[in-house]
């Protein structure tokens, strides 16, 4: 019995592979290294003390995927593989639709033909857009996202719901809020590619002197300190939620399951609060300047994650400061590799 983890060398995938191995699952990773590096595989082994099987190829290549399903008894999939840069998705829409949806369909074809169930999909709070009420629960109406990236997530959800209904399979759609942090060992984390767009890698690189100043995108939002508010969820907590969601599918006696869970802390933090928490946690300074709002940004989003607590017996455990300490450790590990 093995679980296929696509994108298993990526940021959230690598942490989830460790948790799966810790929970006794055999893991088969497919990752084309388009946004990850081979040393992560070695680090996963070091951290977990066990070795996942690894295939380096592009999931768009259906014939190679078929060989993986022929070689292993796959009992479920956690599908992390996707392109995830919101800005890039606007200028390369067809590449994003191709990479995020063709890969999904290739895996589902294998599932369909072989009668496999248990599929977990990395969705995002972006499917809610700017919700009218906080906190956001799973019944909050969806809004078609503005970005192509966000649309691929919403379309992916629809494809999976149709798949589950038509073939009586079990699926779980996990809507992450803002994943942050790194493994406490300092050996796994988010690999920054070029200039970071996301807040935490930018903060870390600024503290490390790689970037001169953080630009805070807007201090005129209708929030307590004027900066935008998000729900920052620690990546190891998030990884554990995947194991819970998988077990929930595996243990369900229902033939068809369509699970949807918001994964967040339930608490909103402003950009300025994050910067201060990072400074306090790590005793470093983060120079910043206030700039105009970033196009497409929403004011506020934080989760009501009660459903995950009730049905998956999962909740976020790690404080913002604690997770920001792990990011700094990871930055220092990356710096030590660079010399
Ligand atoms: P990541 O880029 O670190 O990981 C994705 C991995 O998939 C990478 O290792 C990449 O090499 C691999 N990959 C991409 N396309 C592939 C293909 N065609 N074939 C094989 N491998 C391929 O991203 P992440 O932050 O770990 O995100 C994982 C998933 O969670 C993605 O689906 C993302 O959209 C979703 N998500 C991420 C966030 C976030 O803020 N990080 C938030 C919500 C949802
Ligand atoms: C957080 C806050 C910025 C950088 C994106 C995607 C979303 C999801 C997570 C995948 C915002 C502010 C940021 C900076 C700043 N990904 N900021 N200066 O925009 O909430 O969500 O990543 O599904 O789909 O849209 O995350 O980390 O980019 O920004 O002031 O240099 O930090 O304006 O308020 P976001 P983020």
What fraction strand?
A: 15-25%
Radius of gyration: 19 Å
Proportion of helical residues: 40-55%
The count of β-strands is 13
Total helical segments = 11
Question: Could you give me the name of the CATH homologous superfamily of the domain at 2-181 and 233-264?
Answer: NAD(P)-binding Rossmann-like Domain
Query: What is the second-level CATH architecture of the domain at 2-181 and 233-264?
Result: 3-Layer(aba) Sandwich
Q: Mind summarizing the main beta sheet?
A: 7 strands, parallel
Brief rundown of the structure:
With about 350 residues, this protein is an alpha/beta fold.
Report on the architecture of this protein.
This protein is an alpha/beta fold. It is built from 11 helices and 13 strands. The strands form 4 sheets. Strands 3-2-1-4-5-6-11 form a 7-stranded parallel sheet, with helices on both faces. The chain has a two-stranded parallel ribbon with strand order 7-10. Strand 1, helix 1 and strand 2 form a beta-alpha-beta unit. Helix 1 packs across helix 8 (235-251), helix 5 (93-114) packs parallel to helix 6 (148-167) and helix 7 (199-207) crosses helix 9. The protein is globular and about 55 Å long. The N and C termini lie far apart (41 Å). Nicotinamide-adenine-dinucleotide (NAD) binds at residues 7, 9-13, 30-36, 58-60, 80-82, 84, 99, 103, 122, 124, 176, 179. Residues 7, 9-13, 30-36, 58-60, 80-82, 84, 99, 103, 122, 124, 176, 179 line the site of nicotinamide-adenine-dinucleotide.
